[in-house]
Amino acid sequence: IGPNGAGKSTLLGCISGFHLADSGVVRVDGQDVTRWPPHRRARHGLATVFQTTRPLAELDVLDNAAVGAHVRSRAGFVESMLRLPWQVREQQRVREEAHEALAIVGLEERAADPAAVLPLGQLRLLAIARALAQRPSVLLLDEPAAGLRASEKAHLVEALRTLSGPELTIVLVEHDMRFVGALAERVVVLDRGRVIADGTP
């Protein structure tokens, strides 16, 4: 947490690999990923949901969520064209994982809808579902509650509470202090790029 311009989103950018860190080390599950590009970090278990989310407008909600699961798929362009038996099974697995991710965020009933018609709050939930479909070990969320209605926030809190644990670490940047207080085990306060407080909520 911290005021605008404190460096919160920049920090997430450094962790995700979209910004180069001037100093320090980024480790995921003990592995130094500081010099890795973003796509390699994603394959290693790091998923990021940014403040600004845009769906793949020509795809439906399910296929948008499935994009996240493709990070771990083996099929390349040629295999996809050939539709080999193992590739068909893998595609089925990807769709199942996308369905599960949509159910977690409460969008399973909109799976067949065009992603382009979703309101802002549901687009943010779709971005989270896409990240969850990656099956990450670390999930970076940059203001996930922005634009959500109270009921959507409550559902998201419950979903993230359920997911957080030994298998998934969540790093959250958020201005809604109720949302933070409902989720966080540890709060780090940044101001002008410096840590000014670090502890329990």
Description:
The structure is a single chain. The protein is α/β, with parallel strands linked by helices and 201 residues long. The protein has helices at residues 8-16, 38-43, 61-69, 77-82, 85-105, 120-132, 150-163, 177-183; strands at residues 27-28, 31-32, 46-49, 138-142, 169-173, 187-191, 194-199. α3 (61-69) packs parallel to α6 (120-132). The longest helix has 21 residues, at 85-105.
Distance between the termini: 11 Å
Rg from C-alpha positions? 17 Å
Our estimate of the beta-strand percent is 5-15%
How are helices and strands ordered from N to C?
Answer: HEEHEHHHHEHEHEE
Poorly predicted regions are none
Number of strands: 7
- Helical fraction equals 40-55%
Q: Major sheet: order of its strands? A: 3-4-5
Quick overview:
The chain has helices spanning 8-16, 38-43, 61-69, 77-82, 85-105, 120-132, 150-163, 177-183; strands spanning 27-28, 31-32, 46-49, 138-142, 169-173, 187-191, 194-199.
State the main characteristics.
201 residues; alpha/beta; three-stranded parallel sheet; two-stranded antiparallel sheet; 8 helices; 7 strands; 42% helix
Present the secondary structure layout.
Blueprint: H1 8-16, E1 27-28, E2 31-32, H2 38-43, E3 46-49, H3 61-69, H4 77-82, H5 85-105, H6 120-132, E4 138-142, H7 150-163, E5 169-173, H8 177-183, E6 187-191, E7 194-199
Parallel strand pairs: 3-4, 4-5
Antiparallel strand pairs: 1-2, 6-7
Helix pairs in contact: 3-5, 3-6, 5-6
